[in-house]
Amino acid sequence: MSGYIGTQPVPQATQTRDAFTATNNQTSFPTSGYTPEFLDVFLNGVKLAASDYTATNGSDVVLAAGATTGDILEVVSYGTFEVLNPTFDGNVTFTGNASFGDNDKAIFGDGSDLQIYHDGSNSHIKDTGAGDLLIEGSDNIWLMQSGGAKVFLNTIDSNAINLYFNNSKKLETTNTGIYVTGTVAATAYTGDGSALTGTGSPSIDDNGNATAITIDSSENVQFGTTQTFPAFNNVVGCEVGGFGQISASRDGAEAMQLNRKSSDGNIAVFKKDGSDVGSIGTSGGDLIISGRTSSAKSGIRFDNNTITPAVNGADVDASVDLGYSSRRFKDAYLSGGVYLGGTGSANKLDDYEEGTWTPAVASATNTPTFHNNVGRYTKIGRVVTLQFFQQTNLAPTFASDTDVFYITGLPFSVSGSGYSGSQGSMNAQGMHFNGDKNNQNVTGQVSPSVVNAGGVALNFQVTPNAGTRGQVNHRGAKQGYIIEATITYFTDA
Fold it and tell me: Strand, helix or coil at 52?
């Protein structure tokens, strides 16, 4: 054995010696194997300090500074004593490490109740016996990542227990309960929440971009909004109110859809104090709105291009009135006709009209003027009633005195004339009859008649005192006149 400077190793366990003659500046020396921290290294008999070399991989010793050619390096490695199934009575004191290989266990208890070991992949603290596993600390207890970079759980002596996510505290116990930082998500819960305080308006988040359901302090349940009465406030959402009301609002589409499958009948029933007051339903694919079914209440049916009466949801004929003596409708706007007293074409009243027209003198060679020249008419169906008042100022002139005198400008064409029923009555003054001057006020003796004379016109029949009937001609009108007339005639217009 070479001489040693320093403490010579004393064999206390099995030894393995490796000796090397160094080349110039050699640093790495391959040994036959060692256990890290269980070896001594000598250079030319001088024991090296642990800082002068590295020996961690179990095979190589690497010098911090290169050796000189011819230097002798010796590595002495030590094995440990192995005692088979030792039993210790009393205390055992270790001043170094107690090393256990993979799957070698530190076992406690008569029945191997507590085991601590590493299986090569994972480390285990295993309680297999009776009773509880107690972890006690005189101060705080920490459960953390190796090296302490991240905390998972810690307990504060006589105080809180804290849980962490990614080193951020999320749950803390307090003297009144727990405090949570962030959102609590649960798949179920128990209790009615009546003892909760400081909750404000509880809500359910659908993990989308808006609150799904909110229940406010008045027990109103809101869907898609936190606004009460969304329809009244013109915001999108739906609310079922704690007092029974429903308020719904939707942007650009219907706010409510109701559907009845398979059979005809009511889709919605409306009640007052628990009793039916009406319904909305369907029959044969048509919509029916009806009063309550228990009292023969009327309703209406919406058919193709037709609205028809119904009673108790069933079709009826000639049984339902429109309006009442003290509950009348105001105006009816119709583009067609009204069938009165029957359903045939003879029962159809298809028009009612009131208006004005301007009486004009036919065949005048000048432009007569008038003190009064007013015409009015009323048309009911085919029947036209005219009223007019014409009083000349500048009398008309004509090319022929003997031609028949006509008034034109009538508002509707004539169907039949003269004795066919297009006659009326008038008052006239200053009219001439067939050239014979009649200066009397001939009330009831001059009658107008509607004729077709190159167009619809009025002419005048005169029965003078002598009793001869004839037509008023131009000579009878060119002296000036006053005419007040009412006439009724038939039209096809």
Answer: helix
pLDDT value for 470: 67
Q: Which two tokens stand for residue 140?
A: 């705080």
Choose among 459, 455, 487: nearest CA to 472: 459
Q: Are 217 and 207 in contact (CB under 8 A)?
A: no
- Please give the average per-residue pLDDT across 216-226, as a whole number: 86
Give the ranges where 269-310 is alpha helix by DSSP (H): none
Residue 284 CB partners (closer than 8 Å, separation 6+) = 264
Residue 143 is predicted with a pLDDT of: 86
State the chain's maximal CA–CA distance in angstroms. Answer: 185
Contact in structure between 402 and 474 (CB atoms under 8 Å) = yes
E-assigned strands of 246-291? Answer: 246-249, 265-272, 275-283, 286-291
Question: What are the pLDDT digits (tens) for 303-336?
Answer: 988 999 888 878 888 888 888 899 999 998 888 8
Cα–Cα distance measured from residue 377 to residue 486, given in angstroms and rounded to the nearest whole number: 10
CB-neighbour burial class of residue 386 (10 A; exposed 0-12, middle 13-18, buried 19+): buried
Is 0.85 topped by the overall pTM? Answer: no
End-to-end C-alpha distance for the chain, whole angstroms = 147
User: Which residues have CB under 8 Å from 347's CB, separation 6+?
Assistant: 339, 340, 341
Distances (CA, A) of 225 to 139, 193, 203: 49, 22, 10
How many Cβ atoms are within 10 Å of 359's Cβ, its own excluded? 19
Are 332 and 357 a contacting pair, CB within 8 Å? no
The pLDDT value given to residue 72:
94
User: Does pLDDT of 247 surpass 60?
Assistant: yes
CB neighbour class for 300 (10 Å; exposed up to 12, middle 13-18, buried from 19)? middle
Q: How confident is the model at residue 468 (pLDDT cuts 50, 70, 90)?
A: low
Half-sphere exposure of 484 (CA within 13 A, CB side): 6
Q: Which of 414, 395, 417, 403 is nearest to 363 (CA)?
A: 403
DSSP-derived 3-state class of residue 120 = coil
* CB burial readout 261-293, b (16+ within 10 A) else e: eeeeebeeeeeeeeebebbebbbeebebbbbbb
| Confidence at residue 108, expressed as pLDDT on a 0 to 100 scale | 86
